[in-house]
Amino acid sequence: MATDPHIQVPQSGEKISMQGGKLNVPNNPIIPFVEGDGTGPDIWRASVRVLDAAVEKAYGGDRKIEWLEVYAGEKANEVYGEAIWLPEGTVEAFREYLVGIKGPLTTPVGGGIRSINVALRQELDLYACVRPVVYFDGVPSPVRHPEYVDMVIFRENTEDIYAGIEYKAGTPEAEKVRAFLQDEMGVTKIRFPESSAFGVKPVSKEGSERLIRAAIQYAVDNGRKSVTLVHKGNIMKFTEGAFRDWGYDLAKREFGATELDGGPWCTLPNGIVIKDVIADNFLQQILLRPRDYDVVATLNLNGDYLSDALAAQVGGIGIAPGANINYVTGHSVFEATHGTAPKYAGKDVINPSSVILSGEMMLRYMGWTEAADLVLKGLDATIRNKTVTYDFARDMEGAKQVKTSEFGDLIIANM
Ligand SMILES: NC(=O)C1=CN([C@@H]2O[C@H](COP(=O)(O)OP(=O)(O)OC[C@H]3O[C@@H](n4cnc5c(N)ncnc54)[C@H](OP(=O)(O)O)[C@@H]3O)[C@@H](O)[C@H]2O)C=CC1
Ligand SMILES: O=C(O)CCC(=O)C(=O)O
Ligand SMILES: [Mg+2]
């Protein structure tokens, strides 16, 4: 990164580091950010002002983030002048400065580049995608009791069918996989072998355990009630089923869990329940009985679907933050659950709450809790005052619709 001429490191500012398993955060940390594609720039402009204002108000100038712009996606193509989607310098900056934040990046469907978002998580081994889902009073919701939803999704972030190991139908590679499966492994269940594409779903013990460990540790540290392992292990026995079994084993081995009524559910000594639910059932349970669920640990693709579904219950992906974290190295990239929402790009209308709340998570992760609390205070008051962006305004009686930038201003005023 030091040699990347496109990346201008701020003159002042210091690196965040990890020492003895704890983050060491200076008062003026350098934090890399990617603005993002589509609505990313609209959202980032509002978000950065809110985060800076919260830090300024909380610490009166004693602390300040030194932002370092790095590039990915369409902006990287512009800045680098060629088709470079995820420059080495960007990955290196996130590696070197430990904590970063990003806007959404476009991934084409069917062909073209593979996801830059996924690539970044894989490159930095950010194995836990952490997505809290909580209700802010006044947000319009399609359910009767959105306030019953208070969950934190821990989604495995580096494996599964999501890793992108696929072979296109009709290629020599797909033919090779077909031949291996049918001729060497004796597989007879491929319905249309000649025209099939193939995808691979790697799910490992190490990968599952480190994610489930992070989820249980989070539950312990935050006084939560339960951890639910969500899987489709009845059908995918050796991948999703193993995820469940490895989870229960880990809870017993590392956290002292004991079986409840003959198992497989178990409890930790402090009463936290470890349980499991099959994924399709879980999707109806979260609508009917959301209070039965708290921390959720699941595989990559399930976690992707669940994130948007649960976000809808508390008002949608306009207010759905997240973090990609490696709890061992401390590396983290905070990002919203939503994508680029391209039809709203450049219109200054989109809801910036998801990135603002991802920034709030980042401040809390850094130990800057006073600033994080101010972000929540400002956002909460702005929503209660019914001054909201289009997505909330369309279903909120008596609301005044404001622009993305105005919404940011109001959050700052309400801190
Ligand atoms: N981590 C990442 O960077 C992610 C990237 N993507 C990428 O984003 C692109 C677009 O994906 P798409 O499937 O359309 O999903 P998006 O999440 O971009 O948008 C889907 C819909 O969700 C609503 N929405 C999204 N963001 C907001 C927001 N900030 N405020 C209010 N409403 C919002 C809008 O609904 P409405 O139309 O009702 O207003 C929008 O049309 C794809 O290339 C995809 O791969 C997708 C997810 C994550
Ligand atoms: O990378 C992408 O384009 C989509 C990723 C996504 O939907 C997610 O991580 O929630
Ligand atoms: Mg998604």
From TrEMBL:
SMART domains: Iso_dh. D-threo-isocitrate binds at residues 115, 117, 121, 131, 155. Its cofactor is Mg(2+); Mn(2+). It catalyses: D-threo-isocitrate + NADP(+) = 2-oxoglutarate + CO2 + NADPH. The keyword 4Fe-4S does not apply. The modification N6-succinyllysine is found at residue 102. Its EC number is 1.1.1.42. Residues 30-411 form the Isopropylmalate dehydrogenase-like domain. Binds 1 Mg(2+) or Mn(2+) ion per subunit. It is an enzyme of class 1 (oxidoreductase). Homodimer. This is Isocitrate dehydrogenase [NADP]. It comes from Deinococcus yavapaiensis KR-236. The lineage of its organism: Bacteria, Thermotogati, Deinococcota, Deinococci, Deinococcales.
